[in-house]
UniProtKB/TrEMBL annotation, chain A:
One record GO biological process: amino acid transport
UniProt entry tagged with the keyword Hydrolase: no
Superkingdom in the source lineage: Bacteria
Lipid bilayer topology: Multi-pass membrane protein
This protein's name: Urea ABC transporter permease subunit UrtB
Family under the similarity heading: Belongs to the binding-protein-dependent transport system permease family. LivHM subfamily.
A GO MF label: transmembrane transporter activity
Membrane-spanning segments: 12-40, 52-71, 77-97, 158-179, 239-264, 284-304
Record keywords, A-Z: Amino-acid transport, Cell membrane, Membrane, Transmembrane, Transmembrane helix, Transport
Listed PANTHER family: ABC TRANSPORTER PERMEASE PROTEIN, BRANCHED-CHAIN AMINO ACID TRANSPORT SYSTEM PERMEASE PROTEIN LIVH
UniProtKB/TrEMBL annotation, chain B:
GO-annotated molecular function: ATP binding; ATP hydrolysis activity
Pfam families hit by this protein: ABC_tran (PF00005), BCA_ABC_TP_C (PF12399)
Sorted UniProt keywords: ATP-binding, Nucleotide-binding, Transport
Entry protein name: Urea ABC transporter ATP-binding protein UrtD
Organism: Ancylobacter mangrovi
Domain annotation ABC transporter: ranges: 16-255
NCBIfam families xrefs: urea_trans_UrtD
GO annotation, cellular component aspect: plasma membrane
Classification via InterPro entries: ABC_AA/LPS_Transport, ABC_transporter-like_ATP-bd, ABC_transptr_urea_ATP-bd_UrtD, BCA_ABC_TP_C, P-loop_NTPase
PANTHER family referenced in this protein's UniProt entry, alphabetically: CONSERVED COMPONENT OF ABC TRANSPORTER FOR NATURAL AMINO ACIDS-RELATED, HIGH-AFFINITY BRANCHED-CHAIN AMINO ACID TRANSPORT ATP-BINDING PROTEIN
TrEMBL record, chain C:
Entry GO MF terms: branched-chain amino acid transmembrane transporter activity
Cellular-component GO terms for this entry: plasma membrane
Localization per record: Cell membrane
Chain intervals for the UniProt region annotation (Disordered): 366-386
Membrane-spanning residues: 15-33, 45-67, 123-146, 153-172, 202-221, 242-269, 289-313, 325-349
Keywords: Cell membrane, Membrane, Transmembrane, Transmembrane helix
The keyword Transmembrane is assigned to this record: yes
InterPro entries, per database record: ABC_transp_permease, ABC_transptr_urea_perm_UrtC, LivM-like
Protein name in the entry: Urea ABC transporter permease subunit UrtC
Membrane disposition: Multi-pass membrane protein
Short name of one Pfam family: BPD_transp_2
Organism of origin: Ancylobacter mangrovi
Annotated Low complexity bias: 377-386
Superkingdom of origin organism: Bacteria
Amino acid sequence: MFSDYSLAELGSIFVMQGFAGLILFSVFVLMALGLAIIFGQMGVINMAHGEFMILGAYVTYFTSQFFLNFIPSLFNIYFFVAMILAFFASGALGMFIEWAMIRRLYKRPLDTLLATWGLSLILQQVYRSVFGPREVGVELPEWMMGSLPVTDMVEVQINGLFVMGLTIAITVAVAVLMYKSNWGKQVRAVVQNRVMAGAVGINTEKVDRYTFGLGCGIAGVAGSAFTMIGSTGPTSGQLYIVDTFLVVVFGGAQSLLGTIASAFTISQAQSTMEFFLSGSTAKVLTLLSVVIILMLRPQGLFVIKVRR
Amino acid sequence: MNTPVITDTMNKDFVLAVEGLTVSFDGFKAVNDLSFYVDENEIRVIIGPNGAGKTTVLDLICGRTKATTGSIKFKDQELTRMKEHEIVRAGVGRKFQNPSIYEDLTVFENLEISYPKGRSVVGALTFRRDAPVKERVQEIAEMIFLADQLDQRAEYLSHGQKQWLEIGMLLIQDPELLMLDEPVAGMSVSERKKTAELLHTIIKNRSVIVIEHDMKFVEDIAHKVTVLHQGKILSEGPMAKVQADPKVIEVYLGH
Amino acid sequence: MTKTGRTFFLRPQDMIGIAILAILLLVVLPLTLDNFRLQFVGKYLTYAFVALGLVLCWGYAGILSLGQGVFFGLGGYCMAMFLKLEASSVENTKIQTTPGIPDFMDWNQITQLPWFWEPFHHLGFTIIAVLVVPAIFAFVVGFAMFKRRVGGVYFAIITQALAAILTILIVGQQGYTGGINGITDLRTLNGWDIRTDSAKTILYFVCVGLLLASILLAYFVKSSKLGRILVAMRDKEDRVRFSGYDVSNFKVFVFCLAASLSAIGGAMFTLQVGFMSPSFVGIVPSIEMVIYTAVGGRLSILGAIYGTLLVNWAKTSFSESFPELWLFGLGGLFIAVVLTFPNGIAGLYQTYVAPRLGPLFGGAAKRSDATPPAPPSSGHAPAAAE
């Protein structure tokens, strides 16, 4: 199958494919970050994660419409405003859901799974009723369109680069928040020993609520970033939920680094295989390999051995 | 060529021979090069300050934790290579620190599940509650002071009764080596007395390893005491000897 | 009661409950519903097999599988392959480029029947395959995971991923599976036309018969020591292990049993509805099947049947009149059942109805599980749709 291509062509195809894999990697990381916080730190399975993401995407869409119609002069920077709005919208909804639902279910993880699935169905219908069943796409500001030529055969899309940069920025921010800030220390304290954390004066309920809110907020930002590379519909969130959970579990649920490494592995595997095989076969093979590896090594890629 | 023969015969005298046992969690050695031997029909009490590795030792013997290195021989079977249920079937019974019983089932059903028959899937499907089973359950229930509570859901038992039920669940297995993790913790004075009585009756014809903090209780039942400290043996011998050991006094009173 | 033991595995109240259900399904519904509605009930009942398996697997053993659609689908596809081959005789397909193979294969330029389709020429093989293929698949998955002590949410996520994988696979391999449309245009079973009204009525009764047999099987498992071990495992897995049981074997067994039950449901679905498609395999149907069990009461064998009927009846009537409301209703049901009545209608029955019926049946409803969970009136709900 390679005989049709020259060596230079083949090389540039691999580079392009690698770049596509990197975009997929960014997408996975963005999705998985919020989930890793909620699942890894709180042990809560949030099946509505995709819908929180879509909320961010819708917020971005409406922000872009608002800028386009009312302040077109600032259209170039609307995305940054949208991202912040998306974070707070999804985060606020997340905190509300935590208060109304999740906090009653901390001891029943499987039930959280079912309840958040119910939530996801309701949110999907809300989106459909309010925003309509059709997919919407944002208009990109001019500076994000087009592509950068790297060599005469290889070029990379600017919006893709932007999403990658964004991913790095958000990841760094989350890492700093979780591992360097006082608040992150509190979260980790609550995770390790809830009773003790409460006893030393940490408001565990508040920590739970903000952690959940943060996870959902990051989902919102992820959704916002998504609008740069794809369109948004009421059920778009569902498409990603399985991949995202696999990324998080594969990485070893409690490790941020593991999540990133696993997102990288899975996205590269998938995009490489997509080049050789049909899209669906590549997807099946990727997911199947992940599942089989998880069956053989259920603790995921990265794990800390602890005393029981 | 004589040496191995001698160790073999030596091992046969012991019900349990632990040699060079080490387990490390991320570099931290919870149990460090530990060796001890338990005789037939011996009651061995393990004491030591918190974090000394007492519970970890029991976890290692019953297969709940895998040893990093070392060997645990139970009647010439190497336990470190066996799975939990195989170790139980070989004759080792283990009581947990917190009463571990099935709250949703009745006292009768709790004991019945522990009855050593029908332990395979097919065996459990075809298991019949026949006369020997019922008699045995009744007998054990009387021993553990729960004959009147057989039809009660275990959830509703008092803390002390739950501890007894778990001891009963072990007795019905008739293990050759019984391991009890703090059997009188959280018990009232009268329950404690009854438990001591119970232990005195059940230790006949078997070896017992007990972890306990209550010194009066230890003095009452122990044949031999092993003092653990930071995963190592600090002192071993009869109670009087251990109590007089300056190293033990240092660890317990020195800080 | 426990001390005296049981010579028979059904308690009096279980027998009453099964009898009420049998009368409802075999007499009341066939007499009160027209053919069209009865076929709906027949379709719902195929999901009840899945719900029944979930009671044992999730309710009793605490293993939540979000991939039961996989087994439902495997059973359904096995049956559909047999029926499709029968419908694709050389005579029926002579206009194709390659006569004698299913039409969708011909459309996808496949000229020879794939090897794994060959054995499905035989009905005997097909029936065995319906029961065994899903069980083998469940065994492989269960063995790998339970031996490594994977459970809880991890198991749920992995089974869900399997449901997603199988769906993508079926849709992608159009030439071998019929793709997104599934296997359609099924006609006869060993020459017997399954599309006629009389055939559908007969199939309804076959389905009810199989369901009642499965219910008895479930009761047998539940009342054996194995049933109590499952409950014990859900509560204190370590204690069971340290009572000398190989816990993973019991989990594998109950997971395989649930898989086979689901597959019977799938096969009956294909027979009664006349097609099978990936839309019954994936994530969404799989998790919906969990809600049937949850609504009926995850600990109640009979509750699962009523739950399935009720949710599906609600789905059908909602989607007929207010399609946009159905997702709200279903989503709300998920949340409500988890937050406010975790033991489903069987739990509600236990709390509010059974105490009042108690004197009537001589204290029939003493234990917290598995007495007839719903009063006959709520069982009539599908009839009320008329």
